[in-house]
């Protein structure tokens, strides 16, 4: 039987695409193993799927001054040694990495063991972890055509991000019923990420009376960010976080308002949802969401409002435009090259696995 080691972790964005790949990999005859960190989110999500899981030491590699910069390199070195031992034991045909700092020792160890490796870069420009891994990789999968110019010419492949197939199985009727809504008004779904987005939450609630004249609102506002004064507002429901019912809520949505994390916007694209993106500001990140959003806007998939420029009037106008011109956005998304991402990535994995056997 063919064997593959998946790696990646630290945040859900480095884990859920791997989870999306697992069913197709198993269907094609792979025995799947996973190497992640001791305490990252992957250490909880992967064992739930019945996949053998191996934790290794991991440390964050920073470009800024931090006391942990003295200790974390030793954690990475230890993780490299652990990964080499695991790869010798497991003897996989190929490694697939979704990124995050735990992936660095695994990918470098795979190179040292002459095991082919395919990696995935979600954002427009590679983060530090993937910059370290790219020289060790056979192929680099990307979400954005602009990313290819940052990669060695023979390595980059535009694939899109693996999307959880259950998201395509949502029921609009179940989503409306879950929220206590009817089908008389269109629905806006607001997603600010698992921790929520304070600025987005504030802006949505500031124009809630105007929005409710035309729409019903589903607001995923993040842990600890519910507004109890709005709990009885007709046509408005708020949740800290949704897991199982998310596919139904997305099916019920006519338009979406979201941050611009790579995996989130790829899901929006795959579901063909007209959307407004409010990327995390450069002050609060390395600026990757701003670049992601700019690419989607350029391709005609999204309306973008920079957080620093977010006003009540701009948001209300954007919502109305997204809804009134929804067919234009949907047609642009239907033309996207980022379709069949799982199929494309698994084919690259298969080719790399065969090359090892040669």
Automatic annotation (TrEMBL):
Location of the protein in the cell: Cell membrane
Domain Glycosyl transferase family 28 C-terminal: 187-347
Annotated binding of UDP-N-acetyl-alpha-D-glucosamine, by residue: 11-13, 164, 194, 289
Domain Glycosyltransferase family 28 N-terminal stretches: 4-141
Main location: membrane
The protein's role, per its UniProt record: Cell wall formation. Catalyzes the transfer of a GlcNAc subunit on undecaprenyl-pyrophosphoryl-MurNAc-pentapeptide (lipid intermediate I) to form undecaprenyl-pyrophosphoryl-MurNAc-(pentapeptide)GlcNAc (lipid intermediate II).
Name used for this protein in its record: UDP-N-acetylglucosamine--N-acetylmuramyl-(pentapeptide) pyrophosphoryl-undecaprenol N-acetylglucosamine transferase
Gene source species: Jutongia huaianensis
Organism ancestry: Bacteria, Bacillati, Bacillota, Clostridia, Lachnospirales
Gene: murG
